[in-house]
């Protein structure tokens, strides 16, 4: 691909960004469609976030992905936030329309697309989610639109209760936050239809760990692990062994990018190519 004076820019802002997979999955997908864009990552210090956003307007950068630690704070510097992202309190994608910056959250949309594509029915189902951090926030808001009930567990009980109460109030949802321990998991999993691991448990290099003992799992569960390295975590392996439908976090990671790509370019990227590039980049199996 030759870059010229006409080449336009998409970027990621965050800190740190040197390990980001976004340029790795975006550039080959842009090139395959012959789109004259380049995607790069910028390390932005939190104290310079406002200047970075003004720089985006000044430089005419067409689209921006936003990652940790800027997903919440950046909202006050933008022109228009999608109502769902406003409720959720975090954005990850900005579209620059002649200096007017619109934002939305494609993490939630990407997770939903991944679950639906994998045949997971959310409507009227009971969800048991372990972990009440950043990814869990997007998932709780998304799931609360359709699920019958959500039970949210975290090793810090207060964290689970706080997020659950917020979602309950803003989404008028049936959601409760509790302390995560073996007895709560054993009790709550019995009536659950969907189990989600939204913690780093089982992630490389601690691949022998699992958030749920195998003997607690039952074949009627759909099991979604947000961890994508390894592709098949111990939780997913044990869940498939007992007959559960499963989904890896890689699909969510790719789909949040696919949705941003479509929003910015109006074209659908090759999602399989994006997935392969991440697998190669991380050397995951
Ligand atoms: N698929 C994707 O697109 C995608 C995107 C981003 C991240 N991820 C994955 O998602 C994971 C979570 O990311 P995040 O940004 O949400 O992290 P986070 O904000 O740190 O949230 C993780 C939460 O899980 C809690 N936790 C840790 N161990 C636990 C345990 N044994 N039982 C119950 N709760 C526990 C943490 O508590 P403490 O705060 O006390 O540790 C924290 O509240 C990452 O590790 C990454 O693998 C996936």
Describe the protein in words.
This protein has 285 residues and is an alpha/beta fold. It is 39% helix and 20% strand. The chain has two domains: 8-104 and 251-282, Rossmann fold (3-Layer(aba) Sandwich), CATH 3.40.50; 109-247, Rossmann fold, CATH 3.40.50.720. The strands form two sheets. The protein has a six-stranded mixed sheet with strand order 2-1-3-5-6-4. Helix 1 runs antiparallel to helix 10, helix 4 crosses helix 5 (134-144) and helix 4 (106-117) packs across helix 9. The longest helix is centred in the last third of the chain and has 17 residues, at 249-265. The radius of gyration is 19 Å and the shape is globular. The structure holds NADP nicotinamide-adenine-dinucleotide phosphate.
**Helix fraction bin:** 25-40%
Element-by-element helix/strand order: EHEHEEHEEHEHEHEHEEHEHH
Separation of the first and last Cα atoms: 29 Å
* CATH topology tier name of the largest domain: Rossmann fold
According to CATH, the homologous superfamily of the largest domain is NAD(P)-binding Rossmann-like Domain
> Which overall shape is indicated by the principal axes computed on the Cα atoms?
globular
